[in-house]
Write a structure and sequence with these properties.
This protein has 9 helices and 6 strands; from the N terminus they run αβαβαββααβααβαα. It is of the alpha/beta class and 204 residues long. The radius of gyration is 16 Å and the shape is globular.
Length: 204
């Protein structure tokens, strides 16, 4: 049975693991796995290849259910999150089927927890151009639940789309109908300057 997201992060020591290659070579995997709660995003990879740096534990999974997302069994998580308010009709219209895999989202009916639309709109409107990343939206959601900044030492794998490195530490080649080449060619719509500003405002 899924547990309440707010209760999990309020009553446990948690960390958040982004998908940038920032942790490669750090050996932080055991430290990450030592937390009571580990939060990851989208198509994270905890296979043996990356375990030493990124760990293997995942308790909470957050995704916008976009077209690059593949199915993950929700039974493995204590909570599954949708970081877009796709339960609100006007926002569902804002994100059409060309962006969101609605059949996939439907497989999580009654399980997924949606970001409250007021919190989403608050962070969304801070971006005059582009849009916030899944990671940033989820961090902001946590920030609003806690009512205080998050601790920087509990953040791993965030580089705010550094132009000098790949966006992600992985490239999935299995369990996904999308090709590796399609993933690589998909441009980011997340402006680095805005990502950095919001991150610095809510992470101390």
């Amino acid at each position: 049975m899924t547990e309440d997201f707010a209760d999990l992060i309020t009553n446990n020591r948690f960390c958040v693991v982004g998908n940038s290659p920032k942790e490669v070579g750090t050996g932080n995997g055991p430290l990450i796995d030592s937390y009571d709660i580990v939060i990851r995003f989208k198509n994270y990879d905890t296979s043996e290849e990356f375990a030493a740096d990124y760990g293997t534990k995942t308790d909470i999974w957050s995704t916008p259910f976009n077209q690059t997302q593949f199915y993950r069994d929700p039974a493995q998580y204590r909570a599954s999150l949708c970081c877009l308010p796709l339960n609100i009709p006007r926002w569902k219209m804002r994100f059409p089927r060309t962006n969101i895999d609605y059949p996939l989202l439907g497989k999580y009916e009654g399980i997924v927890q949606y970001i409250p639309f007021r919190i989403f709109e608050e962070v969304w409107h801070q971006y005059p151009v582009g849009q916030p990343s899944s990671g940033m939206i989820t961090l902001y959601w946590i920030y609003k639940i806690l009512g205080r900044p998050l601790n920087k030492k509990d953040m791993f794998g965030f580089s705010m789309f550094d132009p000098n490195e790949p966006h992600h530490y992985f490239l999935h080649k299995e369990n996904d109908e999308k090709t590796e080449e399609w993933r690589i060619s998909t441009p980011t719509t997340h402006p680095r300057e805005m990502e950095m500003k919001v991150y610095e405002d809510i992470i101390k």
